Amino acid sequence: MNVVTKSVMRANVGQVVESHLREHGYDGLCAHDCPDGCGCFLGDLFPCGSECLVYCIPGYAQPDEGGERIIGPSKPRPGDLR
Q1: CA-CA distance, 2 to 37, in Å (whole number)?
Q2: pTM for this structure?
Q3: How many CA atoms lie within 13 A of 20 on its CB side?
Q4: Which of 2, 29, 33, 60 is the most exposed place for a label (fewest CB within 10 A)?
């Protein structure tokens, strides 16, 4: 068994998910099918511990209607993030 295999085997689910998101250019997770419509950024995944985790999908940082940064399912258009 090589060193890479050993380190992957020791990773927890959150680390595996975060690694996958980073490798594919995502900014976090969102769960818009969840009643609360939550989202979380890389570096702080799964802070809610909600049962809605099963609805989480990869997402991108973008502004909401009030200008706050959120995670949404679609890549924002250039100039959307300020």
Answers
A1: 41
A2: 0.77
A3: 13
A4: 2
**Predicted confidence (pLDDT) per residue in 27-65, tens digit:** 999 987 776 778 999 999 988 887 788 889 999 999 888
Domain that holds residue 40: 3-72
Show contacts of 52-60: CB within 8 Å, 24+ apart. 55/31, 56/29, 56/30, 56/31, 57/29, 57/30, 57/31, 58/21, 58/24, 58/26, 58/28, 58/29, 59/26, 59/27, 59/28, 59/29, 59/30, 60/26, 60/27
| Structural domains of the chain, count | 1
